[in-house]
DNA sequence: ATTTATTACGCAACCGATTGCGTTATTATG
DNA sequence: CATAATAACGCAATCGGTTGCGTAATAAAT
């Protein structure tokens, strides 16, 4: 109870060498079954626990996967993490999770800390303002698997897991147009991030295809914080040609917008139709229920987890699966009804 | 670039011993400032990085805090985690997060894994069905700080961080009564968990105080999953004396109930008044907006983080702060209007 | 029975720090 | 100037495993 027993204790009581104990415990082929059995049963008898610190030092691996996300407290991100955790846990890996709080500086710090902690792999969803990527150089140089999820960046030898944001943006926009909208507003997150810029491309493409009007007033870049809702509302009201369709970067912000619009007597969907993004639980609980794009966060996490594990196992399907694209899906609800 | 340099490399190039290098790097008093400066500048010059694995083995500490939560993908829990992470990160600790998925078996596994990984402390929010607590014995025996948050259990030498659930339950119930409700239903989570059983006590106390009717039909125990909404609705409709007030264990489930009740033409709050719990973002986005109890998840996380850190630092205020109770607050919105 | 292959295990270096204790260089004290 | 205190640093054990290589023991081959 007081003293941890080590392989040396086992070796001594069994009259074998520490190396033999170690190999027995790891089921090494060069040890006879008889000896293995003796070692293992004695280990159980004495309550032997392997000391991870020693293993880590010896093998230079930590059995740990690092994760950097912008924020933990978003339903989408925590759902992704739930998926990652499940896979990692099943594979015997621990997850060290840190948040950048949408700041590149903190992202850098976290990347460094996790690197120093010796994570075996790193999963990243980028902060809003991340513009350079030197903080990932160490990982690439030392061949530590680096995988970007959702908010990604193309770096050599790094996998990415995303959905087709451009197509999703296109489909969302076209849906609004099909429902009769003529003057659309895309309320976007930070356009430096792929997810928002790609959706913008789809937005513009759909508008062009259907010969609608378009200028800069059709785009509103926002930090999507609750405090920014009023700016969005102001933008919507302060326009020469009234908007009749809103494509909002996420469901929560869309729900806030709907609430405020209703307050100023704008009817959803009669006056303005609204489509969100993510299919957060909230989207089917608001009134009117929110049309949205289903973004399978849990599956995303599971895939990210599996991808990391297979990298770590050295499975050779790395090159072909360098970029995984998940299927999204338009979910039509009341907020875009004709 | 290729080879990590160690304190031995530094020692050799500087002509000192490895011990001196180590002490210099750790600002040990028995080393002269001149030598420290030499060591440090040379370390920077050569790009020395301390090997955490070796430090861990040597010190038998991991600079890591373990966390077990029932589910990552709930807005409340992820908010708590965000608070914990912020404090831990600032204090230089990494967070290993795992989820029990509401299963005691997985909780046991996670507790064991984290113990074997050598976490310096453990934060736990219990699974629904956790009934025995042997899996925490190792922590207590080895004096590894163990702190329960939200869903807690009283174990010797363990801190707990909660709100006064009984009082919160009382206040929620009394609010319904004050708004004119006569026949209340408490839709609860698993009553083995303190949060739900305590709220039940408050619920019963308020009912007794105001001389309302009460029997077992006034309580409905549920797993609070979306699939269980229909059971709740069935229970509400299948009653001799119609319920006119609902106290629901969390906002999301409350929102689902409201949605379904509206579908069957029951008006909220006219026919039935509803109060939720947690003050999730969703509570102010549904129609009608949801009266609820504010449960400061982020602050809870921050306090939990600070508590752990102070334990680890050996700050002596452990006994007095053995149980921290946060302030909750009733937030009155439309769903309980007269 | 002798040689050759295998099998099973021991030896000891190594991973990269930390730290108690002893020793030398330096400064203070009488 | 001799001696006691300090200050500054080196030595070497220690943390608890892993692993390449060598060797003894056993089995197979001739």
From TrEMBL, chains A, B:
Q: Does the keyword Aminoacyl-tRNA synthetase apply?
A: no
Name the source's superkingdom.
Answer: Bacteria
Which InterPro entries does the UniProt entry name for this protein? HTH_LacI (IPR000843), LacI/GalR-like_sensor (IPR046335), Lambda_DNA-bd_dom_sf (IPR010982), Peripla_BP_I (IPR028082)
A Pfam entry, by short name: LacI
HTH lacI-type domain: residues covered:
5-59
Question: What does the record give under GO molecular function?
Answer: DNA-binding transcription factor activity; transcription cis-regulatory region binding
Instruction: For this UniProt record, give its keywords in alphabetical order, as a comma-separated list.
Output: DNA-binding, Transcription, Transcription regulation
Q: What is this protein called?
A: Transcriptional regulator, LacI family
Q: What taxonomic classification does the UniProt entry list for its organism?
A: Bacteria, Pseudomonadati, Bacteroidota, Flavobacteriia, Flavobacteriales
């Amino acid at each position: 109870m007081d003293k941890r027993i080590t392989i040396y204790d086992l070796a001594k009581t069994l009259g074998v060498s520490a190396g033999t104990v170690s190999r027995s415990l790891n089921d090494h082929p060069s040890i006879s079954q008889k000896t293995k059995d003796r070692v293992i049963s004695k280990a159980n008898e004495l309550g032997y626990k392997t000391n991870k610190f020693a293993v880590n030092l010896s093998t230079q691996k930590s059995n740990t996967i690092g994760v950097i996300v912008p924020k933990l407290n978003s339903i989408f991100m925590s759902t992704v993490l739930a998926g990652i955790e499940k896979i990692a846990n099943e594979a015997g890996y621990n997850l060290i999770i840190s948040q950048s709080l949408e700041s590149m500086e903190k992202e850098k710090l976290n990347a460094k800390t996790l690197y120093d902690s010796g994570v075996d792999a790193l999963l990243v969803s980028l902060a809003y303002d991340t513009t350079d990527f030197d903080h990932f150089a160490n990982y690439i140089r030392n061949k530590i698997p680096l995988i970007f999820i959702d908010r990604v960046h193309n770096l050599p030898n790094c996998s990415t897991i995303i959905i087709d944001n451009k197509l999703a943006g296109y489909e969302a926009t076209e849906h609004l147009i099909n429902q009769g909208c003529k003057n659309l507003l895309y309320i976007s997150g930070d356009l430096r991030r792929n997810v928002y810029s790609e959706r913008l491309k789809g937005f513009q493409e759909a508008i062009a295809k259907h010969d609608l009007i378009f200028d800069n007033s059709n785009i509103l870049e926002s930090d999507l914080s609750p405090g920014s809702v009023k700016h969005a509302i102001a933008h919507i009201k302060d326009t020469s040609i009234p908007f009749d369709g809103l494509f909002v970067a996420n469901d929560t912000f869309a729900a806030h917008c709907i609430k405020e619009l209703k307050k100023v007597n704008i009817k959803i969907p009669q006056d303005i139709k609204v489509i969100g993004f993510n299919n957060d639980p909230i989207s089917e609980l608001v009134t009117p229920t929110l049309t949205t794009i289903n973004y399978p966060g849990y599956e995303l996490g599971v895939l990210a987890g599996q991808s990391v594990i297979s990298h770590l196992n050295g499975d050779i399907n790395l090159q072909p699966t360098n970029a995984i694209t998940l299927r999204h899906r338009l979910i039509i609800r009341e907020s875009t009804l004709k």
